[in-house]
Write a structure and sequence with these properties.
Layout (H helix, E strand, L loop, with lengths): L8 H20 L4 H20 L3 H8 L7 H8 L1 E5 L12 E8 L2 E8 L5 H6 L7 H17 L3 E7 L6 H5 L2 H14 L4 E10 H8 L3 E5 L3 E3 L3 H8 L6 H8 L3 H7 L4 E3 L10 H19 L4 H13 L4
Parallel strand pairs: 3-4, 4-5, 5-6, 5-7, 6-8
Antiparallel strand pairs: 1-2, 2-3
Helix pairs in contact: 1-2, 3-11, 4-13, 6-8, 8-9, 10-11
């Protein structure tokens, strides 16, 4: 069952009608094949036209869709031989940030990313993808391990932001995020980061300071959430749609601004409509990027990464 967003109601009505007609056909033996075909064609056209003209706020809703694939989905469909590694060797293991050794095709990689969970219980377990200091310190440990063994690093970014609780601040949240960003920039091996859902604030940048930054077609990436921006500028979160428009948070805007390097196409209707297909596309694109970076020396990679970030906003 697909969960429909507010702007998808006309599509939901058509798809419900198709479902009812299929039931009528099977129960009563009535031949409605031609009508079903007509409605399916109409539904497909409406879905395509709707997703071809999404506003930034609608893209934000798609990026947050409850059925959107997360880290574990991509591990299942795009990677093989995943060996999870846990703990920061200092305080605890953070379930919001996961990582470990894996294979992408024939290439051994270190993969790290945010996991939001897909139901109430798992979302609480993974803290809705909001990393704590121990999560970012775990990411640092895994990046250093990858550098030691000469493995490329792939990060899957999907967080509304780092966890803002008092206990996180007490354990040095800001310092952990800064150190994680530093670890990305100092990594001697190739690094490719993909914003697969929300890329929020420093919690996202801490895993996305790579020489190649990609975004899924309907993902968003910003320094603050639209609601947070609206609350600051207009003192109300009801202006979130206006904030999203002004902030240029979509993949299309950010590609033109040079903040990201490549947009990864999603299935029509969003990644949640074809998780396996989205993962396959992501795996292929990341493989292409690593093929290019694999031909470069460590000094070239570090210079490319430095140049990329120094030129942002230039």
């Amino acid at each position: 069952m697909i969960s429909y967003l507010e702007f998808e109601k006309p599509i939901a009505s058509l798809e419900q009608r198709i479902k009812e007609m299929r039931t009528l056909e099977s129960d009563d033996g009535v031949d409605v094949a031609s009508e079903i075909e007509r409605l399916e064609s109409k539904s497909d056209a409406l879905l395509a036209s709707t997703y071809a003209s999404l506003s930034p706020w609608q893209k934000t809703q798609v990026a947050r869709h409850p059925q959107r694939p997360h880290f574990r989905d991509y591990i299942e469909h795009a990677f093989t031989d995943f060996m999870p590694l846990g703990g920061d060797r200092t305080y605890a293991d953070d379930e919001a940030i996961m990582g470990g050794f894996a294979k992408l095709g024939d290439r051994r990689v270190m993969v790290i990313g945010h996991e939001k969970g897909n139901d109430t219980q798992s979302r609480i377990k993974h803290n809705f993808g909001m990393g704590k200091p121990e999560g970012y310190r775990k990411a640092i440990r895994l990046m250093e391990l990858a550098g030691r063994f000469g493995l490329p690093v792939v990060t899957l970014v999907d967080t509304s932001g780092a966890f803002p609780g008092i206990e996180a601040e007490e354990r040095g949240q800001a310092e952990a995020i800064a150190r994680s960003t530093e670890a990305c920039l100092a990594l001697p091996t190739p690094m490719v980061s993909i914003i697969v859902g929300e890329g929020g604030s420093g919690g996202a940048v801490a895993l996305a300071s790579a020489e190649r930054v990609l975004m899924l077609e309907h993902a968003v990436y910003s320094v603050i959430s639209p609601e947070g921006c609206a609350s600051i500028l207009w003192r109300t979160s009801e202006k979130a749609a206006d904030a999203a428009q002004a902030m240029r948070i979509t993949a299309q805007h950010l590609k033109r601004l040079g903040v990201i390097d490549r947009i990864v196409k999603e299935p029509v209707g969003g990644a949640h409509r074809d998780v396996a297909g989205t993962a396959a596309t992501l795996g292929r694109v990341v493989g292409e990027e690593l093929d290019k970076l694999g031909k470069m020396e460590s000094t070239e990679i570090l210079a490319l990464r430095e140049k990329r970030f120094l030129e942002l906003g230039g």
